């Protein structure tokens, strides 16, 4: 039996009846070869040249895959290219300079359109400015911006000069920013004065200022003025204004730096099972090829589409499917700064209608909210421009899937449920809408060329219908190359559990040894998710087995939240779990025992919430803090988190006799009943 899956239990509902995309969709789809899965299988790994061929290379690659140093795989390794050239210059050269690249919708109803030419000009100017500030190839530039156009502009400017970017989600705290800058030894920061949250001006710069205080390195900071007079700010030492820089470097162009395909394009910090966030390293060639290919094959993006991925660029989804994928294909990507319910709950549908959006990609948590708000909001608008819908980030159960197709997709839009991770870089499991039928509640088959297997504890594939661990056998182009400055952790976190122990040991004891290895087949990537496969090979992802909670698509480590709580004076112990709300969203439940042993304590409760907010950010704020004299523990002293998760979810509890203190469980249940 596999460890219990994460909190989104709703997803374990059986899949609904299948839907085939309408012939009108299939006729126009980018990818329709019925035998594509077999073709990829037969030609693996050379099949992936299809993805690489979507890019423009400065120097063509000779080898597709190098696997001698598994699991440190190298794709298209002897090729050279530049990501910003692929997202900008080549579209200018092919006569699309006046085509809209970004349509930005601001929180206060502002709108800005950047043609490919506009974007090219501003990216070049900022690239020149970054160079002038001292940024050199391979220097990590941290970007701490909300959803304003300067965010993708800064990313592409970094890519242009070969400086990896590390985007930190704007809602994260000063501490979180500092930890990430420290880990990456980043000496450059691009941030802003502030941004609007709902109607109010919110100060971002003060968070950036606080983050820099604790850093050892000097940091050159560029500040974008987003709020103007709504939040006046003064620039200090080592700080400069983005718009001043643009004026200084007006009209300058910077030759795109030719990068090795394996050179780092960016770093993305993500939560793991320990408190230390992991710096996931993505490559230039393999990553860009994989995101371009999946944007084309899975999301059916065409150059003349208006495409909208309603995610935040501060997370991987936005990197891959707001910025790099759509821009590599030369399409129009919509970028939305606000929330779905401000100023009203029809905001997204108004944007779809006004921009005649063709493709819309969002997260299940949003879809569940739309469902709760009712059909009145979407029904006021003309959504008939929509051709394809997508979802990502969490399991989606059949009910919201069908609602989405029906009420947003007009009853016949194909819906792709795309499973992937920060570490996979791009989509790895999904139906191909020009080929496959969709089963609500199941993400679909692995993409062609991706070797997903759902296995038991011993690594053997489980029977259809059984739950197992979601693993991936062969490498794929968009995969993470390592964890920044931590090859060992890359091996132990993702590969050790299901790979050949000898191969793992060899890699850990003599890393990157040059002696020839023949054990590429011994390596198997573990995603951290559990899943089930059906007779047709369709995969239903159930949730995570590790200590990661997925709150509204934000990936948070329970350890990070726990350590913020444990820091509060008077807290003895704590355990944080995810709880599935009635609507299928995940909420954070924090169990706390205090040193004084009191049942509840308003002062401590306040400090806990403050501490979480400053250590991580408001997204990590628990729905409930439950005080208990003790946490339930095993005899060996381990906190029984799984039991606490069951308690939070109101589940039947199994045998609790293995506990050292079984009596505590009843007390906690009573406490939660009082809360509720
Ligand atoms: C892209 C992204 C990754 C985790 C992943 C899984 C969950 C993502 C999913 C899904 C079920 C889907 N997840 N897509 N679960 N169905 N279609 O979200 O990356 O933030 O790294 O999160 O999200 O649990 O392991 P990331």
TrEMBL record:
Its EC number is 6.2.1.1. Belongs to the ATP-dependent AMP-binding enzyme family. Residues 96-481 form the AMP-dependent synthetase/ligase domain. Residues 1-11 have a biased composition (Basic and acidic residues). Residues 35-87 form the Acetyl-coenzyme A synthetase N-terminal domain. GO terms for biological process: acetyl-CoA biosynthetic process from acetate; carbon fixation by 3-hydroxypropionate cycle. Residues 560-638 form the AMP-binding enzyme C-terminal domain. Pfam families: ACAS_N (PF16177), AMP-binding (PF00501), AMP-binding_C (PF13193). The gene is acs. This is Acetate--CoA ligase. It comes from Natrinema zhouii. InterPro entries: Ac_CoA_lig (IPR011904), ACAS_N (IPR032387), AMP-bd_C (IPR025110), AMP-bd_C_sf (IPR045851), AMP-binding_CS (IPR020845), AMP-dep_synth/lig_dom (IPR000873), ANL_N_sf (IPR042099). NCBIfam families: Ac_CoA_lig_AcsA, PRK00174.1. Residues 1-26 are annotated as: Disordered. Keywords: ATP-binding, Ligase, Nucleotide-binding. PROSITE patterns: AMP_BINDING (PS00455).
């Amino acid at each position: 039996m596999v460890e219990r899956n994460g909190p989104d239990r709703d997803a374990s509902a059986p899949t609904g009846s299948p839907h085939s995309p309408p012939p009108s969709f299939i006729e126009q789809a980018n990818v329709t070869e019925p035998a594509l899965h077999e073709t990829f299988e037969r030609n693996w790994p050379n099949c992936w040249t299809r993805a690489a061929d979507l890019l423009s290379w400065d120097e063509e690659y000779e080898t597709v895959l190098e696997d001698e140093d598994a699991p440190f795989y190298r794709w298209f390794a002897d090729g050279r290219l530049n990501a910003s050239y692929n997202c900008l210059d080549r579209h200018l050269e092919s006569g699309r300079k006046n085509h809209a690249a970004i349509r930005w919708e601001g929180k206060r109803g502002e709108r800005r359109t950047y043609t490919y030419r506009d974007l090219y000009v501003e990216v070049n100017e900022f690239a020149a400015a970054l160079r002038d500030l001292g940024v050199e190839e391979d220097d990590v530039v941290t970007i701490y911006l909300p959803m304003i156009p300067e965010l993708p502009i800064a990313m592409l400017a970094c890519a242009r000069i070969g400086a990896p970017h590390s985007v930190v989600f704007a809602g994260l705290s000063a501490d979180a920013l500092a930890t990430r800058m420290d880990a990456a030894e980043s000496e450059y920061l691009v941030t802003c004065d502030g941004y609007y949250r709902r109607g109010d001006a919110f100060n971002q710069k003060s968070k950036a200022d606080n983050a820099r205080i604790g850093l050892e390195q000097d940091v050159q900071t560029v500040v974008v003025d987003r709020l103007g007079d709504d939040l006046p700010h003064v620039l200090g030492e080592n700080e400069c204004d983005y718009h001043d820089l643009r004026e200084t470097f007006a009209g300058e162009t910077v030759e795109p730096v030719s990068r090795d395909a394996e050179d780092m394009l960016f770093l993305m910090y993500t939560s793991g099972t320990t408190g230390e966030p992991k710096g996931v390293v993505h490559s230039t060639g393999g990553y860009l090829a994989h995101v371009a290919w999946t944007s084309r094959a899975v999301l059916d993006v065409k150059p003349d589409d208006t495409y909208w991925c309603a995610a935040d660029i501060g997370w991987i989804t936005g990197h891959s499917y707001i910025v790099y994928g759509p821009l590599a294909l030369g399409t129009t990507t919509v970028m939305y700064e606000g929330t779905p319910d401000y100023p009203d709950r029809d905001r997204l549908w108004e944007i779809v209608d006004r921009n005649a959006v063709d493709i819309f990609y969002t997260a299940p948590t949003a879809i569940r909210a739309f469902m709760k708000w009712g059909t009145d909001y979407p029904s006021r608008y003309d959504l008939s421009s929509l051709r394809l819908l997508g979802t990502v980030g969490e399991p989606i159960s059949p009910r919201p899937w069908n609602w989405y197709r029906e009420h947003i997709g007009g009853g016949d839009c194909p819906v792709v449920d795309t499973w992937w991770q920060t570490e996979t870089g791009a989509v790895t499991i999904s139906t191909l809408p020009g080929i496959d039928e969709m089963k609500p509640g199941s993400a679909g088959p692995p993409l062609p060329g991706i070797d997903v297997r759902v296995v038991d504890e011993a690594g053997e594939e489980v029977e259809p219908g059984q739950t197992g661990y979601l693993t991936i056998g062969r490498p794929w182009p968009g995969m993470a190359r390592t964890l920044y400055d931590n090859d060992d952790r890359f091996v132990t976190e993702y590969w050790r559990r299901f790979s050949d122990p000898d191969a793992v040991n060899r890699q850990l004891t003599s890393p990157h040894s040059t002696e020839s290895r023949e054990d590429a087949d011994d390596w198997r990537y573990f995603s951290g998710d559990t899943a089930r496969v059906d007779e047709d090979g369709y995969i239903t992802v159930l949730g995570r087995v590790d200590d990661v909670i997925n709150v509204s698509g934000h990936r948070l480590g329970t350890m990070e939240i726990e350590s913020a709580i444990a820091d509060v004076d008077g807290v003895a112990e704590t355990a944080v779990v995810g709880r599935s709300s009635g609507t299928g969203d995940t909420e954070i439940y924090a169990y706390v025992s205090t040193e004084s042993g009191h049942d509840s304590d308003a002062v401590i409760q306040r400090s806990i919430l403050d501490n979480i907010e400053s250590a991580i950010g408001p997204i990590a704020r628990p729905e409930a803090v439950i005080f208990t004299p003790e946490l339930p523990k095993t005899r060996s002293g381990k906190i029984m988190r799984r039991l606490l998760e069951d308690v939070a979810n109101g589940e039947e509890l199994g045998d609790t006799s293995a506990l050292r203190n079984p009596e505590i469980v009843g007390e906690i249940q009573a406490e939660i009943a009082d809360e509720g």
